[in-house]
């Protein structure tokens, strides 16, 4: 579902090299924190250099990966007075510290980089990650051989929406439309658009609505994600954002996804609406890829890793609601049922 975030891009890097400079270990780091997730995952690799074509080194695991006992990865939480997500201050106090554990995963597709065992690091901070924007998280990579800090980075959570409910302060993120009280604001009968509106977060800088369409095939419930266009909030000046997904895009994504289907399908008259949001660090990283990927030219990728390359950012994915896909009710059949039946991909009536 994470339509605009692919934090673990399996890449190594070429760094500027001077033959007279001392050798330096340069980590390649990817980590995204999310207060809705119990576990924080980090990808830490090695940058490499060679006199031959660099792709010749790409498939060699020793060129890409640290040995399990070569480094240690730590996550620290700093608390203090803060304005607009400012960096760690000398007066901040350390309120949490966790060491990542080493693990290995398999299943990476074949490609230029090693497709065997993939090293990952993880820690489980628990509710500490649900911190407000006066908390800064720091990621530190340390050499177990020398004790030196190889790389470090810091990022600030995107925050919460402050509300007062029944006379007491609480924190709640509000999806304004659609919601359970006004589900009819999402649907395609009026204006052929499904409206989505939400309140912004203090340090949220890039938002993307995603509609998850559910259907049944051979007794199983399956789903298709239909991402909307991302919406940037450059300075955190917006308090309300609004996007819509057109009926033409909604049904064309479904048709393209199911174009080779040969079975009978039934739609489920409920969709999930999710808002994906990230902070400035992750937005800058995503934008540096989007703005240059189509050009085919050499480009610089945004990095906030001191002593290395990569990204340490923050996102949230919990702004979510399940509502009717079509709440018009009349005429019969429902509008969405009628449109699905005419896609020619296996729908023959409402479930």
Provide a compact summary of the structure.
The chain is mainly β and 351 residues long.
Order of helices and strands: EEHHEEEEEEEEEEEEEEHEHEH
Number of strands: 18
Q: What is the count of helical runs?
A: 5
Distance between the amino and carboxyl termini: 24 Å
Overall pLDDT score:
79
Contiguous low-pLDDT stretches (5 residues minimum) are: 1-15
Give the overall shape. globular
Radius of gyration: 23 Å
User: What is the share of helical residues?
Assistant: 10-25%
Q: How many structural domains?
A: 2
Largest sheet: number of strands, sense, barrel closure: 9 strands, mixed
Going by helix content, strand content and strand pairing, the class is mainly beta
Beta content comes to 35-45%
Q: What this model shows, in words?
A:
The chain is mostly beta strands. The protein has 2 domains: 168 residues, no CATH class; 137 residues, Immunoglobulin-like, CATH 2.60.40. Strands 1, 2, 5, 6, 13, 14, 15, 17 and 18 form a 9-stranded mixed β-sheet that branches. A 4-stranded antiparallel β-sheet has the order 4-3-7-8, with no helix packed on it. A hairpin with a 2-residue loop joins strand 9 and strand 10. The radius of gyration is 23 Å and the shape is globular. The chain starts with 26 loop residues before the first strand and ends in a 10-residue tail after the last helix. The N terminus is likely disordered.
